[in-house]
Amino acid sequence: MRRAIAAVVASCAAVTTAFVANAATASAHAQRAADAIGPGLVTVDVDIHYSKFSLSTLHVRAGTMVRFLVHNDDPIHHEFIVGDATVQRIHELGTDATHPPIPGEVSILPDDVGETFYVFDRPGRVEFACHLPGHYAYGMHGWIVVDP
Length: 148
What we know:
CATH superfamily of the largest domain: Cupredoxins -  blue copper proteins
Strand content: 35-45%
Order of helices and strands: HEEEEEHEEEHE
Helix content: 25-40%
């Protein structure tokens, strides 16, 4: 009889644990969608310190134009490149030390602020990165998740 009761208690505990875990996951997904910025024009500040971006993932809604203000607190140059895999590959293999102010690309001098704009019009993921020698490998990249 005690074994039967222990089995029932264990089963109830397992079901409760699974239910709580599922609810927490659903809540995290709902929170992520609720925290997405946009649509419209929004400004996002990105800090660089010790060759690290202050954000690793940003959620935006489709139809959002983001004005990125990139604050370089390091004593070395950095860049902030937003774009798909092709754009990232071009910059990783490229030799440009600086970039003109075009959408999604900006070079930032030491102790300076750079500015670029990017329109996120389709749901999916878009990468941002610094491709100066060794910076990407050091971890200077992240994702922008575009929610519908």
